[in-house]
Write a structure and sequence with these properties.
The chain has 678 residues and is α/β, with parallel strands linked by helices. The protein has 31 helices and 18 strands. It starts with a helix and ends with a helix. It comes from Yoonia maricola.
């Protein structure tokens, strides 16, 4: 079967997403492959489709059980023989996997990297006829990454042992991590590398300065009521208090963090996968395994740890391609905390410097004066124009020349020998005669009282932006006192100027970006009805709703309103197996009662052969009693007509072999005319 046939018949898509086809072709051809693709860019398809096109079994190394189970379930729904060997299996599930392996029917075998530690696993994989290794979340091989999994280091040995090609996939990998992947997984041999664009245009980007942060999150969620969302929090305690606050204001919300019992975490994961409109307040422990395609928003109640972490976390929204929203809150305390985290870590000095650089990139994004998406993508080496639909494109930042104010602040820090935090420095600039200032004689400094053009709140915003631009950095050895960095020297010496945003505190009081409707007002009631049908079918099957169809597929149904199975087959995400299982259920929601269609005709829905079958039926009906209407009634069975509809280049002899002499005598010439006219 060709790749386009597999794409359409199994996965239900008319075309590849940008960048997918080249990767699929390379993997099918048996090339060692490294693909860096954005979260939600369709990574899974890039190894699932080649697994079906190649002989033998593809073993997929994936880091989380929940993710593996969902992918296996989704593949089975699409009619693909897939299985997983995980610690969460029942004995029956494990037996079924072994039987399918022995029978040679299994195409994809999922397993966690920890399973490779067992010698028995290596022997089993040798015997199983593995022809390809696919590695999901390949950045887990990086020892300096926050997702490092020691057992990922065994994958290179597995590749050498089996002597088969390896395809590695990840959403975020800077040059350093890519080198580690090539070294550890590919033995230093450069694979065919595909670096897909990092843009996720359906995700709206927005940042806001913290100002009553709990209310900011509550307002943001209230404007998106009924939509699935994640609120990332910097502490375990905050996940619990925010989830409680959301529940008290009428949302269905729960919390998730690494300190919970394993079973409680599993319950939250299961609820989030299966329920529409649930909000999870979580630490980053709620991460890589979340493959729910219809998360409509992600909010950060605290600043993420780096630009890569930010990109990966917001990337969990809108994986179905439909519009999604983000809001990231930040303040000076976040900046101090993140700096301290890096400085107190155990990494060597060069790694700490790189981590400060990553944090600087994120702070630059937070304090950006122009298009957010442009800032983000430039970090990843791309050169886009303004996107037109992030918060700064929609409402451009008001800026002012902050050079004089920044020099005043730097001077105050230097004249107090960089031993104080922002609060004391602001008091000096404002000329506040506090006890602390008078005791230290700071009221006699030349900078005392020079900053009265700005009030306290405005100075707080200036200092926050200076920290964001990495002009001042908290020093842990001086208990968080602000010290000037090298970046500030050109400004202090008059060799450079700097623009700052006007105080952004007022802007923070809004509820964040405006809500984007998934469909037009006219189509919204139908979308709700389709979701209700999906929820019912998912509950019946005890499966996540998106395993039936994801949001994007339902949105297309609501907008295009297919009236027949043939039309339904052309909706994105509706493959042959899902059309057979669920097509009529959803057609009934759209069109009311539907005409009964023979199962053989249903199998041909959406294909050219379906239209040929219909014409054969018409011809047969007209000749049912012979050319003159006087003969004994006669008709071919539905399965016989389906076979005829799928014939290519048939002549009378071939046709007679399929339908028999008796039927060929009555219908042969007319059937051949239909087939030739197709």
């Amino acid at each position: 079967m060709s790749t386009t046939s597999l794409l359409s018949d199994v996965f239900g898509f008319d075309a590849f997403r940008p960048g997918q086809e080249e990767i699929v072709d390379a993997v099918i051809a048996g090339e060692n492959t490294l693909a860096i693709m954005p979260t939600g860019g369709g990574k899974s398809l890039c190894f699932q489709l080649p697994a079906l096109a190649r002989n033998g079994v593809t073993v997929v190394i994936s880091p989380l059980i929940a993710l593996m189970r969902d992918q296996v379930r989704g593949l089975r729904e699409a009619g693909v023989e897939a299985g997983a060997l995980t610690s969460g299996n029942t004995p029956e599930e494990t037996d079924a996997v072994w039987q399918a392996l022995e029978a040679g029917t299994l195409k994809l075998l999922y397993m966690a990297p920890e399973r490779l530690a067992s010698g028995g696993t290596m022997n089993m994989l040798r015997r199983a006829g593995i022809s390809l290794i696919a590695v999901d979340e390949a950045h887990c091989v990086s020892q300096w990454g926050h997702d490092f999994r020691p057992d990922y280091l065994r994958i290179g040995e597995l590749k050498r042992t089996l002597g088969v090609p390896l395809a590695a996939f990840t959403a975020t990998a800077d040059a350093e991590t890519r080198e580690e992947i090539v070294e550890k997984l590919f033995g230093g041999q450069q694979p065919s590398t595909f670096l897909r664009g990092f843009d996720r245009p359906n995700i709206h980007l927005a940042f806001a300065v913290k100002d009553s942060p709990r209310n900011q999150i509550l307002n943001f969620a209230a404007a998106r009521k009924g939509q699935s969302g994640i609120v990332y929090c910097g502490t375990r305690a905050k996940t619990e208090t925010l989830a409680k606050a959301l529940s008290e204001t009428g949302h269905r919300a729960c919390h998730y963090h690494g300190g919970m019992e394993a079973e409680d975490r599993r319950i939250v994961e299961r609820r989030f996968q299966q329920e529409d409109g649930l909000i999870v307040c979580a630490t980053v422990a709620f991460g890589m395994g979340i493959d729910k395609p219809d998360i409509r928003w992600v909010a950060h109640a605290d600043l993420p740890k780096s630009i890569e972490a930010y990109y990966q976390e917001i990337g969990r929204a809108g994986r179905d391609g439909a519009p999604a929203e983000t809001l990231t809150l930040f303040g000076p305390d976040d900046i101090r905390y993140r700096r301290q985290q890096i400085d107190e870590g155990l990494a060597p000095p060069e790694r700490r410097a790189a981590d400060h650089g990553r944090l600087n990139a994120l702070l630059g994004l937070a304090e950006a004066l122009r298009c957010r998406r442009q800032n983000l993508l430039e970090y990843f080496g791309e050169t886009p124009g303004p996107c037109g639909h992030c918060d700064l494109c929609e409402k451009p930042a008001e800026v002012f020349d902050g050079t004089t104010a920044v020099r005043m602040a730097l001077s105050a820090a230097l004249r107090t020998e960089e031993w104080f935090g922002a609060g004391h420095l602001i008091d000096i600039l404002l000329g506040n005669a506090t006890d602390k200032i008078q005791q230290r004689g700071h009221d006699s400094l030349p900078t005392y009282g020079v900053g009265k053009d700005y009030d306290k709140r405005q100075w707080q915003a200036i200092f926050r932006q200076m920290m964001g631009h990495d002009l001042l950095r908290p020093d842990r050895e001086r208990h968080g006192a602000l010290r000037m960095t090298e970046h500030a020297r050109p400004i202090l010496r008059g060799e450079a100027t700097i623009e700052l945003r006007k105080d952004t505190i007022k802007a923070a009081r809004g509820s964040g970006p405006k809500v984007r409707m998934l469909v037009s007002e006219e189509d919204a009631p139908l979308l709700s009805a389709l979701k209700a049908k999906r929820r019912y079918l998912a509950e019946q099957a005890n499966a996540p709703a998106y395993i039936i169809f994801n949001d994007r597929t339902l949105i297309e149904m609501a907008e295009k309103r297919p009236m027949t199975l043939d039309e339904m087959a052309h909706i994105g995400g509706v493959g042959a197996k899902k059309l057979e299982n669920y097509g009529r259920d959803f057609l009934e929601v759209i069109a009311g009662a539907t005409e009964e269609v023979h199962p053989m005709r249903r199998k041909l829905a959406g294909r050219d052969e379906g239209a040929v079958y219909d014409r054969l039926m018409q011809v047969q009906a007209s000749l049912n009693r012979g050319p003159h209407g006087a003969d004994k009634p006669m008709s071919c069975s539905a399965s016989m007509l389906a076979k005829v509809a799928q014939l290519r280049g048939a002549d009378m002899e071939h046709l007679t072999r399929v339908i028999g002499d008796k039927y060929a005598e009555r219908f042969g010439d007319a059937f051949l005319e239909v087939l030739e006219g197709n």
